[in-house]
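Dear colleague,

Thank you for sharing your sequence with our group. We've completed the structure prediction you requested, and as agreed, I am returning the results in plain text so they can be pasted directly into your records. Please verify that the sequence below matches your submission; if there's any discrepancy, let me know and we will rerun it promptly.
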Amino acid sequence: MARPADSTSLTPVPPESDGPRIGIVGAGNIASLNVAGYLEDPRCRVVAVCDPRPGRAAGAAAAWGVPDAYTDLDALLADPSIDAVEILTPTHLHHDHVLAALAAGKHVSCQKPLANSVAEARAMAAAAAEAGCILRVSECFRHYPPLELAKRLIAEGAIGRPNNLRMRTVVGQTDSSFQAGLDVDGYLWRMTSTSPGGHLFDDMIHKYAVALWLFDQDIVSVQAVVRRRDHYFEPCAAIFEYEDPGILGTMEVSYAPAMWLRSSFYGADEFFEIQGDEGFLWVTRCTGQLLDLPAVVLYDGKRGSQTTTSFPHVDDDWAAGFRRASSHFVDSLVDGTPVEMSPTEAIKALQLCFAVYQAGNLRRPVDPRSISQAVVPDGWPR
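Please find the predicted structure tokens below.
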């Protein structure tokens, strides 16, 4: 009997002298961040890279010290020695690429968002269960050390009973060498009908995943106002109601094209504030380094305490989330560790994303759990 894709009892890859062998599917802008964790992990080997652009596949293979370069996915999947694949292709290709990999008996890690619609994501989850293979979504924010620490402190009762989450994202300009080296062609598909939306779909999926994960609570109602700037960017103000009526969430998304940000990566900055009955937590950075503050700040407001604690030694390098996400997939392959994020969790994040769009379109509350397909924001694409 095939085991469910979300099973908490995963079957590890049979041990080999060099550990699980991993193929990388897609060598675009974000690939180097995702692959670094595998290259550093002694328990696995990256043995192949596939990209339809011959020069890109060969160049990535040379840069990463990978022996095989393919321009055809079927050729990579036909290699019986490859145990698992990391799929880093454009989102509209995920469905077909994941199904092909599962049909070939490969375990799969897939870049976020999992799919362009809830129906596609559910089909992928069902295929993984049928194949008896691991399917997980690579979600770097859930493996980012400051956010991991915040989740642990919440669970330990450091702020008492949580009652509010505030998430703020601002996109501006930066002169980082990382952003200067990005391939513009890697963004064009994000601005056409090959994507069901713009920035709120492609980037904010990270924040939806965090909103669901911090409290391990479903969100049952969304209200939102969504705007459009410079075609792709979608300023937004949203309110989330959780299963626990004592918890509310707000999400603010801003676009500031004339504001320059300190960043080693993209011109973006995130800030998370988690309020509890007895204190609050700040996570002051993710992608950028906008504020001269520690990455995590805890205010303990219990009577007789009233202390502020910072955590200066937590690794706040945004790339650490990518490396840890890759290492976690190896944990699942080698030790059978339950996957983070599972297909079920990835589907909930997609539903939340589409609920924001639908609430913005309809100007009324929307239950994310009611969404079974995709929702496109009004006027998309221009």
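Summary note from our side: The domain at 143-321+353-362 is CATH 3.30.360.10 (Dihydrodipicolinate Reductase; domain 2).

Kind regards,
the structure core
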